[in-house]
Amino acid sequence: MNNLQSFRSLQANGFGKNFEKLIDLACKYYRAEGKADISKIDEPFRVIRLKKAGRFEGQFTKNANPDFEGTLDGGRSICFEAKYTTSDRLKQSVVSDKQAEVLEIKSKLGGFAGVCIGIKDRYFFIPWEIWSNMKEIFGRKYIRANDVSKYEVIFRQGVRFLDYKYE
After folding, report:
1. Which entry of 27, 33, 45, 50 is 20 to 30 Å from 60 by CA?
2. Which residues make beta-bridge pairs with 154?
3. CATH class name, domain 16-164
């Protein structure tokens, strides 16, 4: 990997982490309002070697599940993956096979499953039924912001993924 690719990879990782923090702010808001209890799920890993100054070498132990899980007021479960891009489109393939499998199961069991996405400065919560059938619905395996404008959510106290902008 050359320096430019390395920089872009680090930059994309940083955008993704910031996006997850904005979602976590909304989780705290929903918890305080009594609307939901939703938490970020850490990726499973193990420590291989301890280093100095609190550092360590680690290894992921299995494929990651979706990023957030919890319970909505009334008892319905919620489970979703978070994805962000600075480009004008987001590919369906950004959700891993393992994540898709989990989201499909949760959806079939009656949970509120989906993908919370950021495309540049717009934010959306796409229900799993829409995301998983992207090819049939949009004719391609990627979406643009205008394709999913009805799923746009508000940005206040974070990315408020339960509050659609146009409801």
Report:
1. 27
2. 160
3. alpha beta
3-state secondary structure of 136: helix
d(CA 141, CA 143): 7
pLDDT tens per residue across all 167 residues of the chain: 677 566 556 556 667 789 999 999 999 999 999 999 999 987 655 555 677 776 656 554 456 789 999 999 999 999 999 999 999 999 999 999 999 999 999 999 999 999 999 999 999 999 999 999 999 999 999 999 999 999 999 999 899 999 999 87
- Please say whether the beta carbons of 153 and 159 come within 8 A: yes
Closest CA to 94 of 84, 106, 102, 103: 84
Q: What is the dihedral of CA 11, 158, 94, 1, to 10 degrees?
A: 10
DSSP secondary structure of 93-111: GGS-HHHHHHHHHHHHTT-
- Provide the b/e sequence for 135-155 (b: ≥16 CB within 10 Å): eeeeeeebbebebbeebbbbb
* Rg of the chain, C-alpha, whole Å: 17
